[in-house]
Design goal:
Length: 221
């Protein structure tokens, strides 16, 4: 089932079924181009994938340790990332030409949106200088990654976005060096003892959508 509704003239699409990564990438790329040509409206797409490793433009082959799943060139920035069941993704196809044309500010706003939503579930998380993604404390107290950020901007229209670990199989991350960071682990809401399904996560995330969009309408830090 796919749910779709407009918010601020942005199509919000929520998928219940898993969408193969290659299919999603093709659809997202086409939508990005259509928005740039003025032939389609903006869209935020919330979904999950079957297990897949995706390679960003800075991917290093040596960091693909065990390609047990399909490996796809994603075209986004960054290195290798895992996506799979229990991980909720938000693909953002937004037109920055009508907002602040500020790449750094856009990424900062996306990070802030995810951090604030995690906070609604009692999880303190943060940005870490020099380390891409969203970080928190794992069950052992050590810093661990709970969310990934990967953005591409073409003609000032965004694509890709973020991934948050709700309850994925964390062993699947061992097939790569996630985002090129070998000395920190990964965690999830389930790993922290929290049961949060996709629908509950989406509801909390979208409750903060207007605040996120407001940040894009003004000069970002």
């Amino acid at each position: 089932m796919t749910a779709s509704l407009p918010v601020r003239d942005i199509e919000i699409r929520q998928e219940d079924a898993r969408v193969p990564y290659r299919n999603a990438l093709a659809a997202m790329t086409a939508r990005n181009a259509a928005i740039a040509e003025g032939q389609a409206g903006e869209m935020i797409w919330l979904l999950e994938h079957p297990p897949v490793y995706t390679a960003g433009t800075s991917a290093v082959r040596e960091e693909l340790l065990d390609p047990r799943f399909d490996v796809v060139d994603a075209g986004r920035g960054g290195r290798y990332t895992y996506h799979g069941p229990g991980q909720r993704l938000g693909y953002l196809m937004l037109d920055l030409r009508s907002r602040t044309r500020d790449v750094r500010g856009f990424v900062h706003a996306v990070e802030g949106w995810v951090i604030a939503t995690l906070g609604d579930f009692g999880v303190e998380s943060w940005r870490a200088p020099g380390r891409i993604g969203i970080w928190t404390r794992g069950p052992d107290g050590a810093e661990a990654k709970i969310g990934a950020i990967g953005i591409r901007i073409r003609r000032w229209v965004t694509m890709h976005g973020f991934a948050v670990n709700l309850a994925p199989d964390l062993s699947h991350f061992s097939g790569i060096v996630p985002c090129g960071i070998a000395d920190h682990g990964v965690t999830s809401l389930a790993d922290l003892g929290l049961e949060v399904d996709a629908q509950t996560w989406d509801k909390a995330l979208l409750a903060r959508l207007d605040a996120f969009l407001t940040q894009l309408d003004v000069a970002c830090p």
